[in-house]
Each structure stands twice: as C-alpha cells, then as structure tokens.
Write a structure and sequence with these properties.
The complex is a heterodimer. By secondary structure, chain A is of the alpha/beta class. Chain A is 40% helix and 11% strand. The termini of chain A are far apart. Chain B is α+β, with helices and mostly antiparallel strands. Chain B has nine helices and nine strands. Classes of the chains: A alpha/beta, B alpha+beta.
C-alpha cells in the first residue's frame, strides 16, 4: 500500500518525490528510503526525511505495515513471474540520459540508418522551404481537382469562357415529317452529351435549340430557314457573349482538350483567311473591281484588321458550309441576320436554293459588297472535317476529310442522312475520340492487354505452323 | 437618258456629282433608274470626306441655296423636331410604322413621303457602314429581277418595311422640307406644293403632262433663280 493512504497531501504526500510513492522500492516494511533516492529531491526537508527521522526516534514506522493488502504481501512473487520486456531504461520518459533518442531501433548501426538520418535532418532544416513547395503543389492539385479550374476557365477576365456560346441544333425535324426512331435518339444523345461535356470543361455556354418542324411561318419551306432566327434569339439571350458557334446535330468534337481560344481565337489572323481566292470552289469573282466601290470593298482582304472579322465560315467541295460556323456579336452581324431572309429573294429562289440559308449567303456574298470585308474563312479541317462519304467516297482529300494523325478537332457528318449510316458514323468517331484521348493510366492498361494479346496470337501462330 | 444630281455636303462646301447611268453594271432589261444606287456609292468613293449625300433627281431645282443641309435638315435637334414618328412608313396603309424613339444623330437616311409612297427622288444619306449596307442591299440583283412595278421605288418601300435594321436608321420629314411639288397631280397631296422660300422644288410627273412639257414647267423657276443670282441673293 502506498504511503499516501490519507488523502491530504501534507500527511499522505509523497507526490513531490515520485520515488516514494512506488511501493516496489524497499517493500520490506521500511518505508523510508534512507539516503539514495532515484530522483534527487530539490529541497532537503521533505516529508519523507521527516518521517524517517521520526521513525528512527520512535524506533518503529508511524503506521502499520502489516497486512496491507494482497498485492503488498504477494507483490514480489507476482512481479517476478510477470513477463519481462526489454524496456531499456533509456527509453522511459523519466530517463535523463535518453540514449536511444534519434536512433532507429531496428536499423541501428546500419548504413541505411545513416542515410535516413541525414535525409531527415536535411528535411528538418529546410522545413519552411519544403512547406512552401508542398503548399504550392497542394494548391495546384486543389485547383484542378475542385471546380476552381472550371471557374477560372469560365470567368471573362481569366479564361474567357463565358464569351463563347455553342449553339447545338438538336431535334432536327422533331419527328414531324419522319419517324424518329431509336437510332435518331441515340445520335442525339451522343451528340448532346459530347457538346455538354466540352462546354462544361471549358466554361462555355451551351444552347440546345429545337429545330423541329413547326408551322410558324406562312410558307412551309421557310421552316428550314430557322438558323437565322435562332441565331438572333440566342444573341439576345446571352448578352455578354461575344462569339456564337453554330453546330449541326451530326457533329462530334473529337479533341475536347482543344479550347476554342487556343485552337482558333487567340490567333485569328493566322487561323483564318479572308481572300476567297485561296480556295474558291464556287469561283466567286474576287476581289470586286467596280469602280464605284470604295477601296475597302475592292480590297481582297478588307481592311486587314482582325477586329473586323465578324463571321467565320468554311467551304467544302460545293460551296459554303454552315454546319459549323462562328458569328460575332456586332452591328454588322445584326444587319446580316436581318437581310439574310427576304421574301423577294426567297420567293424567286427557294426552289433552286437546296441548302437554303447556305445558298442565300453565297448569293449575298457574291452580290452585296458590304459583306465581304467582314467574312473570314477557316480551313475546313480546322473545325469542320468531313468523314469519308461526304465530298468524296474514299475520304482521302487532305483539305476536307478527317485525318486521325493530325488530330482534327471536329467531325461534321454532313449529309449522312442521305445514303449513309449516321449512327454508325457517330459511334465510330466516338470510339475513336475516346481511344485517342485516353489518360496515361488507361494507355498503360491497354498496352499491357495489347501486348498479352499479341504474345498469345504469335504463340498460336507458331503452334499452327509446327 | 437622264442624269441625276448628287450633292455632297461637307460643312459649308458642297460639290455636285453628275453620274452617268451607263457607267453602272445594270442589265439591259432593268430600268435605268436603278443606276442611282451605285451612283451614290460612287459618290461616296469619290468624295471620301463628305458626310452627307443629297440625292436629287434632275427634274428638281434647288430654289433656296441659302439653306444648308446641315442646319436645315440634318442637325440633330432640327431632325428630331422634323421627324414624323409613328406613321405608316409607306402610305396609306402600311402596318410598319416609323420608330418613335430615334435619336437625330443616329439617323442615316432621311426621306419624305407623299400620299402614295415614299418620295424617292430626293433623299439624304449619311456616309458610314450602314450606308454601304443599305445601298448594297437595295441594289441586290434579286430585287431588280423581281420586276417591281415602280422599280427601285417599290424596292425601297419593300426593304424599309421588311428589315428593321433599315427602318431603325430612317427618318421621315415633311415633304415640303426638301421635295415640294410643283403641282399636285393626284389631288391628294394638299399642302405639299411649292411655296416661296422652300428649299427644293420637284418636277415629278412633268413628263406625263399632256398640255405642257418639263421645260415649259421649269422655265419660270429657272428665270427666278437667274434673277436671284443676279441680284446677288
């Protein structure tokens, strides 16, 4: 039993010197330690020494030492039979010497220990610098893992994504004139999903417009001219956006890692050309040379300023192609969209104009000089590649058809509803896009499975031979 | 063969440009009056610093040369006062009405109307991108091939009603401001006949007169102009 039976520290005491409270020291009945204490006591006159003196004087200890409990009587027997741990003194908290600190218990004395210790020391010394570097890395990771990077891309001051609106013409026909079966639904789902993912990644707005046939206009053929009206409505809906990218439904963005800014708009002068003589499938006479026109209208490239480009289209083998084009918000664009459809022109020409707005635009480009200085063209494969079958069955025209090795941006399966398999094509291009844009882990897995497969095949071939 | 007169105005100086209708690429089957549109474009090319282009048919006389276009018509406040708003653009019963909230300095096209339609032989265009757009749109071959009954006048009335971007820059002003009639043929244009002090007198319809001819009608006014210049007025 501990000496401190009584609760009061004055008599029971003993906590000032931990050596005294342990009943294991000198449990022979002599409770006073007599001389050497394990921990030196700061003050000489302590309770213990006082008790010891009184015990000496008295001749017997001042409390009963007999029969103080089971553990007191049997402690030595119990403690000697308990398992012993090689708990060296130097490891205990109380030990002053601390011989084991800073040493690797298992690796003690080996070379690895020396290296690790040195490394640890270096790290400790450079802890502030390393903390800064670690902080930066964590911020970097945090930027990309959280939606922060998307906010950055979308904001108008940093990434500029909110300045772009993608207009996707969905629900073509709406099932009014023709049945819209599971294939059509699947094509629409794939196309919409592809554009949604792209717009979300780069912070663009996506406007999915319904192109179903509605009896909105007095003349039924006018219904297919909705591109112009839709573009006007969308421009009003997104007043902060600058560029509007029209996409037909049968298109697929093959490389979602290209942003529009980096792919086209950051260097518009290099990515577009204004002189249609560069590639002129319609043989439109250019530049205009009537003497009554001003210099800008007669120049082949307008005023040569990038800011004056308000409309970017591409040409395929047969003329202008409005499956994928860009329109900028400007007064010029407002006027173009206003004058594009006119009943006089429509009445005379709608039977000849198979491609409707496209042909009307070609006619306007040809005949109205105010249009030319503000229209630019981009190479077809920049954002409007064709699959084999459109503009050539073999798909080998390097100006027109999709080239996998060049990683073209977008495929426009134009005219697939006449004679080709739209669903098959979009499926094929989706798989191709997924394969081309695998992340490194998937590439590694595919490499392993491919090499196993080829090893198996070559083994089978050898077996067949022998 | 007729010639029309184009007056360019820049500050206080003005020059006159007489285009020849044969200079412009118009098909043989199209009436020659369409030539006035490329002619205005031509004038804009030849006089790159002129702001206002005042188109005037040859059968018209500027009776009061004291009046300048800037002050008499095109000045912002004056134009806003003169503008006739919220009336059918093409009388008598067009559903399209002129806009009522247009600012004077945004107007690029000033024209008058009589009771039958727009008066297309006397109008003012301000130089600019809109002017190029308007003239090129008006001159689109599809309008010419449509064979409007009154040629470019009907085409003008058509595009002004169908295209809001054109109507947004158009101002109608009272007819006597720049196209007073010498005689009211149809009887409906009361109050639009020429009075002393009017800017321009238009001899529209003088070639259809049975009893007299254009020279006959214009003669007294020529005399008046000559005497005016003699007296140094």
């Amino acid at each position: 039993m501990s000496l401190s039976r009584s609760p009061s520290p004055q008599r029971g005491g003993g906590w000032s010197s931990p050596g005294l409270t342990t009943p294991y020291n000198g449990s022979s009945g002599r409770s006073s330690p007599m001389g050497n204490h394990s921990n030196g006591i700061a003050n000489n006159i302590t309770w213990a020494s006082a008790q010891a003196r009184s015990a000496e004087i008295k001749g017997y200890p001042s409390f009963s030492t007999r029969n103080q409990g089971f553990f007191h009587r049997h402690l030595r027997k119990i403690s000697s039979s308990l398992p012993q741990f090689n708990h060296t003194d130097s490891r205990s908290y109380a030990e002053k010497e601390k011989l084991g600190r800073g040493r690797w218990p298992l690796l003690h004395g080996t070379k690895i220990e020396a290296i690790l210790t040195r490394v640890g020391r270096i790290i400790w010394r450079m802890r502030l610098r390393l903390a800064i570097v670690l902080g930066i890395i964590l911020l970097w990771i945090g930027f990309y893992v959280t939606p922060l990077h998307r906010m950055y891309r979308r904001s108008p001051w940093f990434g500029g994504g909110s300045k772009f609106v993608i207009i996707l013409a969905a629900n073509q026909g709406g099932g009014v004139m023709e049945w819209k079966g599971p294939r059509e639904w699947a094509i629409e789902r794939d196309s919409v999903r592809n554009k949604k993912k792209y717009a979300k990644k780069w912070g663009y707005d996506l406007e999915i417009v319904d192109m179903s046939t509605k009896k909105r206009y007095a003349h039924e053929w006018r219904e297919s001219w909705e591109k112009v009206d839709t573009l006007r409505i969308t421009m009003r809906k997104y007043p902060d956006a600058e560029w509007f990218w029209w996409l037909d439904l049968n298109t697929f963005i093959m490389e979602p890692s290209y942003s529009l800014q980096s792919h086209m708009f950051n260097n518009l002068a290099k990515n577009t050309y204004r002189d249609i003589n560069h590639y002129n499938p319609l043989h439109i006479p250019h530049p205009l040379n009537d003497t009554y026109l001003d210099l800008e209208s007669r120049s082949p490239t307008g005023d040569n300023k990038t800011e004056s480009i308000n409309f970017i289209i591409t040409q395929d083998c047969g003329g202008f192609n409005l499956g994928s084009f860009f329109a900028k918000r400007s007064t010029w664009t407002d006027r173009l969209l206003d004058i594009w459809w006119d009943p006089v022109g429509y009445e005379q020409k709608h039977m000849q104009w198979e491609h409707k707005e496209q042909d009307a635009l070609e006619s306007m480009y040809r005949n109205q000089p105010w249009i030319r200085p503000h229209v630019a063209f981009f190479e077809q494969r920049k954002a409007n590649s064709f699959p084999p079958g459109a503009c050539g069955d073999r798909g080998d025209d390097p100006k027109i058809h999709y080239q996998e090795k060049d990683r073209d941006f977008l495929v426009n399966m134009a005219g697939c509803e006449w004679g080709r398999d739209c669903w098959g094509e979009i499926y094929k291009y989706r798989q191709l896009s997924n394969r081309l844009n695998r992340n490194p882990w998937e590439k590694f897995k595919d490499w392993i499975s491919d090499s196993i497969r080829s090893a198996r095949q070559s083994r089978r071939k050898e077996e067949k031979k022998s | 063969m007729w010639q029309s007169r184009r007056t360019g105005k820049n500050m206080r100086r003005s020059t006159t440009f007489f285009p020849n209708e044969n200079d412009y690429p118009i098909e043989k089957t199209t009436p020659k009056s369409w030539a006035r549109i490329p002619a205005i474009r031509h004038a804009m090319t030849l006089y790159p610093y002129t702001t206002y282009f005042f188109y005037l048919d040859y059968r018209a006389l500027i009776m009061n040369p004291e009046l300048s276009i800037e002050e008499h018509i095109m000045d912002t406040k004056r134009l806003e006062d003169l503008m006739i708003t919220d009336v059918p653009v093409v009388p008598p019963d067009s559903v399209i009405k002129t806009f009522s909230h247009l600012k004077g300095d945004r107007i690029d096209f000033v024209i008058t109307q009589d009771k039958e339609g727009l008066v297309h032989n006397s109008f003012i265009i301000r130089r600019g991108e809109w002017a190029k757009y308007f003239l090129d749109a008006w001159f689109d071959p599809l309008y010419r091939s449509y064979n409007f009954q009154k040629g470019e006048q009907h085409a003008l009335e058509h595009i002004v009603q169908w295209h809001g971007t054109i109507l947004a820059k158009l101002a109608l002003i009272p007819q006597r401001t720049m196209a007073s009639l010498y005689k009211d043929h149809s009887g409906k244009n009361v109050g639009a006949t020429y009075k002393e002090g009017d800017f321009v007198i238009s001899f529209e319809g003088c070639d259809k007169e049975k009893t007299s001819s254009c020279e006959h009608e214009m003669a007294p006014f020529f005399k008046a102009l000559e005497s005016q210049s003699e007296t140094g007025g």
